[in-house]
């Protein structure tokens, strides 16, 4: 293990104490929540998330989960009892058939049914649509160290857990209607809210915003108003199982509820006994705040516009259910670079599980922990992923060197550990861009990959590929899924005789110095410079010494930079037939000493 990794372990371990972590937005929100819980006289603080498994749960929705997780985790670090609950809104109606999930138009027949009553895509190992899309998110959250208590709304409603709350809401339906009436002229369609905010966003963020609104509980949800009167309860039809029903009468004394359905069926049931329906969203959410005693729950902008669920819910929870609205900051949308294209073509928006294929868990957590919930940001699966890893590695060096700013240190600690302990890490972390370049060139041959990686740092050689995982696995996945075939690196099988014959004397001298060295002691023979640092000095030093500049001199000279670029182009053309490629020192290591010499005409 390197000193950096060892020191990082110590820092991460120190994060899991009852002191908590100071210096960031999480600690400030936790302060507010603790004060609010004390005012309410609560022994255990409840932080809540809500996810509707109506399709793949994408990275934009992850903010709904990770924000309360981070706040709950900070409270736990302080030694205060706290629980993060996850409400699975799996009793929501199936609204539409999403693209790119392996089903055809025949699934339209299930629109209007509870998500747990819709069959999963063909070949699924799960019993329902909801479970099919819930499972990969649960697995991803486990890998990210996010602990929660899941609550299935299907189980809650069908078991009668909310029976008294439903009967109470029906008795108070006139009052609820009056509260909703205060906001109906202010209400905005969630899609319109998204469109309004999206004017300030780029195309990728706009696509993320629209996707988030579509998947939220507010999407296309009526508030219970009908021509027959106002009823806050929506039954599912006993025959077709859909919610295309209209309540036509209700008796408070007997709890007899009569409904008709678009399928032609009609029935009268006793609401004191029937468990086949649910409260409409704008009533359901505040009911659950009171039922669970929620103190903290954030929500997206689509829930916090005038007349939307969070605003109206604040009135209903107090006036109808005798509870209080939670502390609830609004979170901004998370965009995905290239998402606009993905959404229109495949319908596929990256999920947390897919992100973890190319990002270590701590890095994915860090993306969310380092920014306030109100800040929009983009996640990229393209070339920017290399810069993201570079930024993370730079942060680790600052942390272990005691030079990180308080906010950066807090974000690192929240990313790399939880109150329960530290997350799994790569024992011997090597630069991601180096790993990706090596994997690109070796095409996954383990023996060759190990040979190259073990030569990167002779003072701390890699003993096995397992020491470089999971980061190495992430690099392999990234190259396989994100690097286009035309961008892959292919090393020449034979020297380019025509190119070697046609180069000028100055270029021949550059190649000679690269291979045979120079009088400058910092520029030995290529054989003796065979490490990542040595080759870096070598390739940058050749144009220097031929201009009477010391090989290891640090200077900025436009003419020198131009000469270095031209020299690099020559070496790239001789090795891979293109003028650009992976970082040249890494490429040389990947090609190997003997083959490099042969291709360079030695």
Which features would summarize this protein structure in a list?
three-stranded antiparallel sheet; mainly alpha; 25 helices; disordered N terminus; 602 residues; 46% helix
Quick structural summary:
The protein has 602 residues and is mainly alpha-helical.
Helix content bin: 40-55%
The major beta sheet can be summarized as: 3 strands, parallel
C-alpha-based Rg, rounded = 30 Å
Number of strands: 16
Strand residue content: 5-15%
Ends distance = 38 Å
* Low-pLDDT sequence parts: 1-17, 193-199, 216-220, 340-347
Helix/sheet category: mainly alpha
Q: What topology, given as strand order, has the largest sheet?
A: 1-2-3
- Mean pLDDT, as a whole number? 89
What is the overall number of helices? 25
Overall outline: elongated
Describe the structure.
- With 602 residues, this protein is mainly alpha-helical.
- 46% of the residues lie in helices and 10% in strands.
- Strands 1-2-3 form a three-stranded parallel sheet. Strands 7-8-9 form a three-stranded antiparallel sheet, with no helix packed on it. The protein has a two-stranded antiparallel sheet with strand order 4-5.
- Strand 4 and strand 5 (229-230) form a beta hairpin.
- 45% of the residues are buried.
- Mean pLDDT is 89; it is low at 1-17, 193-199, 216-220 and 340-347.
């Amino acid at each position: 293990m390197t000193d950096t990794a060892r020191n990082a372990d110590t820092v991460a371990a120190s994060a899991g104490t009852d002191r908590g972590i100071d210096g960031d937005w999480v600690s400030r929100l936790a302060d507010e929540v603790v004060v609010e819980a004390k005012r309410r006289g609560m022994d255990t603080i409840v932080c809540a998330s809500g996810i509707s498994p109506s399709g793949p749960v994408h990275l934009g929705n992850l903010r709904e989960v990770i924000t309360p997780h981070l706040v709950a985790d900070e409270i736990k670090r302080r030694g205060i009892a706290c629980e993060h609950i996850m409400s699975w809104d799996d009793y929501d109606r199936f609204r539409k058939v999403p693209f790119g999930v392996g089903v055809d138009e025949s699934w339209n027949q299930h629109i209007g049914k509870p998500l747990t009553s819709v069959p999963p895509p063909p070949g699924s190992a799960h019993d329902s649509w909801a479970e099919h899309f819930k499972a990969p998110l649960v697995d991803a959250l486990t890998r990210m160290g996010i602990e929660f208590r899941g609550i299935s709304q299907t189980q809650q409603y069908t078991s009668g857990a909310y029976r008294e709350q439903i009967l109470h809401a029906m008795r108070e339906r006139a009052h609820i209607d009056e509260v909703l009436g205060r906001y109906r002229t202010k209400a905005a369609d969630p899609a319109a809210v998204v469109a309004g905010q999206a004017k300030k966003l780029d195309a990728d963020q706009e696509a993320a915003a629209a996707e988030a609104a579509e998947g939220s509980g507010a999407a296309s949800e009526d508030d219970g108003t009908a021509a027959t009167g106002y009823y806050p309860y929506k039954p599912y039809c006993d025959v077709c199982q859909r919610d295309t029903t209209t309540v036509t009468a209700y008796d408070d004394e007997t709890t007899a509820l009569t409904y008709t359905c678009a399928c032609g069926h009609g029935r009268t049931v006793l609401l004191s006994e029937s468990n086949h329906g649910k409260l409409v969203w704008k009533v359901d959410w505040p009911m659950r705040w009171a039922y669970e005693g929620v103190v903290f729950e954030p929500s997206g902008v689509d829930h916090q516009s005038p007349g939307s669920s969070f605003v109206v819910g604040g009135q209903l929870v107090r006036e109808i259910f005798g509870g209080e609205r939670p502390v609830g900051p609004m979170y901004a949308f998370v965009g995905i670079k290239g998402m606009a294209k993905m959404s229109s073509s495949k319908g596929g928006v990256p999920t947390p599980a897919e992100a973890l294929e190319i990002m270590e868990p701590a890095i994915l957590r860090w993306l969310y922990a380092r920014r306030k919930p109100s800040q929009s940001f983009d996640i990229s699966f393209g070339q920017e992923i290399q810069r993201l890893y570079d930024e993370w590695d730079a942060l680790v060096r600052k942390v272990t060197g005691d030079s990180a700013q308080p906010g950066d240190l807090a974000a690192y600690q929240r990313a790399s550990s939880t109150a329960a302990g530290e997350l799994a890490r790569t024992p011997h972390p090597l630069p991601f861009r180096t790993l990706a370049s090596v994997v690109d060139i070796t095409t996954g041959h383990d023996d060759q990959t190990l040979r190259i990686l073990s030569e990167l740092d002779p003072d701390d050689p890699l003993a096995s590929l397992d020491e470089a995982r999971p980061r190495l696995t992430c690099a392999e996945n990234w190259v396989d899924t994100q690097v286009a075939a035309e961008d892959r690196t292919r090393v020449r099988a034979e020297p380019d005789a025509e190119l070697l014959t046609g180069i000028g004397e100055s270029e021949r001298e550059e190649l000679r110095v690269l291979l045979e060295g120079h009088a400058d002691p910092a520029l030995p023979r290529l054989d003796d410079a065979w490490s990542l640092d040595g080759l870096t000095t070598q390739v940058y030093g050749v144009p220097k010494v031929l201009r009477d500049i010391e090989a290891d001199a640090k200077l900025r000279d436009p003419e020198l930079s131009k000469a270095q670029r031209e020299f690099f182009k020559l070496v790239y053309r001789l090795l891979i037939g293109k003028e650009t490629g992976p970082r040249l020192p890494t490429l040389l290591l990947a090609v190997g000493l003997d083959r490099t010499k042969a291709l360079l005409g030695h």
